[in-house]
Amino acid sequence: MLLLLACSRARPPLAPAASPLRASAPQMVFGPKLPPEVAVVLRPAYEGAARGGEPFVVGTEAELRAIWSAMLKVYGNEADARLAVARNQQVILPYINSPAVITGAHRALLQKFGAEDAAKIIRQNPGILACDPAALAATPSRDIESAASFVAAFDSLPRGAREGVPFATFALLAGTIGARLATCAGRVCGSSADWDLKGGLGVQAKAWVLAHMPM
After folding, report:
1. Largest Cα span, the chain
2. β-bridge partners, 45
């Protein structure tokens, strides 16, 4: 489950260790028009600009158009694809993801859950489309659903609460939940009142964060 949550919530650094400027030779670019919130990732980021740092470019327009085309394919409409990008921009970064990973991850979800439930999962947890398809296919269905529920609940927190949760705290909470799922799989773990009857994993995760973070 930690793999799924890492795909879901990890944010890339501003620039990787090696950040060469890509060639910008004129080229024919094909594919769907990029919405502004997608095209913005191509804007060069200047790492250490005050010290004469080189601009870092996440990828080419052709690469981004191919990724956006894959997003449109798996979501089925532009509105849902744009909402997914707004929630988790890493899925469209060419130096992190690719069209093959997006469509492969979606295919793995379709095989496990069918079209309706797969669509629900990628809406709840867009970051799952950056997970390795083979690893995703080998992940228990319950873990995938639990991760999606957790991410959806986390994203529904008030903005101040989300920003107040350090990544280490998030990882600790995710690890605790993942360990409990592994330990309790197929069995009753504690009382129902303590776990299942409080609204499920996502609801309880949200309640835990709200209870433990200063507002």
Report:
1. 64
2. 56
- The per-residue pLDDT for range 117-149, each reduced to its tens digit, is 999 999 999 999 999 999 999 999 988 998 888
Positions of the chain with pLDDT lower than 50, given as ranges:
10-28, 167-173, 176-206, 208-210, 214-215
- What tokens were used for 117? 């439930």
* Two structure tokens written together for 137: 């296919």
What residue ranges in 1-87 does DSSP mark as E strands? 45-46, 55-56
**Other CB atoms within 10 A of residue 64 CB:** 21
Angle of helix 78-87 relative to helix 61-75, nearest 10 degrees? 110
What tens digit of pLDDT does each residue of 151-169 get? Answer: 887 776 666 555 555 544 4
- How far is CA 74 from its chain centroid? 14
Residues 6+ positions from 94 with CB-CB distance below 8 Å: 58, 59, 60, 63, 64, 67
pTM summary value: 0.65
Q: Which of 74, 65, 66, 142 is nearest to 105 (CA)?
A: 74
What is the signed CA dihedral for 49, 60, 5, 141, rounded to 10 degrees?
180
